[in-house]
Amino acid sequence: MAITGLLKEIWYLLAEMAPYLLLGFGVAGILHVLIPRSAVFKHLAKNDLASIVKASLFGIPLPLCSCGVIPVAAQLRKDGAGKSSVLSFLTSTPTTGVDSILATYALLGPLFAVIRPIAALFGGVIAGATYNLAEKETPGTQSTDLSCALCGREQPHSHSFTRKIKEMVAYGFHELIADVWKWLALGIILGGGISYFVPASLIESYLSNSFISYSLMLLLAIPMYVCATGSIPIAATLIIKGMSPGAGLVFLIAGPATNTATLSFVAGKLGKRASAVYLATIAVTALCFGLLVDFIWLSSGKDVALIAGGMEMLPGWVKTGSSILLIALTLLAIFPKKRSVMKDKASQSS
User: Fold this and answer.
1) Which of 267, 268, 284, 326 is closest to 106 using CA atoms?
2) 296 to each of 10, 118, 218, 245, how far by Cα in Å?
3) What is the DSSP letter of 308?
4) Are 337 and 178 in contact (CB under 8 A)?
5) How far apart are the first and last CA of the chain?
6) For 135-170, what is each residue's pLDDT tens digit?
7) Which residues contact residue 159 at a Cβ distance below 8 angstroms, ignoring those fewer than 6 apart?
8) Residue 33 contacts by C-beta under 8 Å, 6 or more apart in sequence?
């Protein structure tokens, strides 16, 4: 039956990604607690190359999608970060993250796992530096916000180790999952659908050609809303079916980095020139690194090990257990929110 076959493909993708996703969410929770807000603002206020590079580096491990990055970028700008630094942050952050880097390795192997964060850093630095050269601006006013990420207090204080652990778990395995589960689920379902319904001969006939596949992936990815992790199963499935690896990377870079909401935010808050630089940089970065991936892959004699998932060494019970745990955590993250919404509606009607 078609339903059974589709569910098998979806489960396969989930099982391949789940262990690395759980590890990534855990690392994200640690970063959330350990990196103080004051340090972020302190290093991004100036409009120089150092601030631009720092903004890009800071954004790479953060697991924020192209919409989730908007409020963070707005807060950075409000608290004194320069436009160039904010643009750099906006460009590099959605493209990757600790969760997506690990999930990329799980499904697409070491080449993609290494190239993806490098491309994010390159794109962020080029976007910020280009805008800084095109439109000089005075440094922003340094923020004095020293509020704690755990409790919001601004006065000097400390938290117990137990309190920090609880916050790491709450952020990484509840709040973050609640933010990304829709797009992650969509990506896995689409990936499973492509794997089951789309014949390999069709992909090989039309998307094995780099010119066609690069152009199509770029046109589809720019207006599309898909998170850095949710884009992985889609790209992986297309590559397995016969699309060039470089075209897959084009989708992995351009898809998470852009959508209509982000483009509107950049144009409204940073200006039309910044919006043009942002879009052009992402397109050029995606195409250049796509060509680089194909060059490396072809030069290696199409070594499958470079683009093969890195999960083979994990036993089946780890994959299955991780998948069940991830589903359980997702349900726990979703349903409390729904119950609170129902309570709010009930209180409003009474």
Assistant:
1) 326
2) 30, 15, 21, 10
3) S
4) yes
5) 48
6) 765 554 444 445 565 666 656 667 777 888 888 888
7) 148, 150, 151, 167
8) 149, 150, 164, 167, 168, 171
Distance CA 341, CA 349 (A): 12
Residue 124 DSSP SS3:
helix
The C-alpha atoms of residue 66 and residue 96 are separated, in whole angstroms, by: 10
83-92 and 272-299 helices, crossing angle to 10°: 40
The per-residue pLDDT for 53 is 92
Find out whether 18 and 326 touch, Cβ atoms under 8 Å: yes
pTM as predicted: 0.70
Helix ranges restricted to H, 135-175: 161-170
Alpha-carbon torsion angle 14, 20, 22, 25, nearest 10: -120
Residue 52 token pair: 């631009």
Query: Are 39 and 69 within 8 A, CB to CB?
Result: no
Rounded to the nearest 10 degrees, the angle between the axes of helix 316-349 and helix 2-34 is 80
Q: Give long-range contacts, CB 8 A cutoff, 24+ apart: 4-8.
A: 5/196, 6/192, 6/193, 6/196, 6/197, 7/192, 8/196
Map residue 109 onto helix, strand or coil. Answer: helix
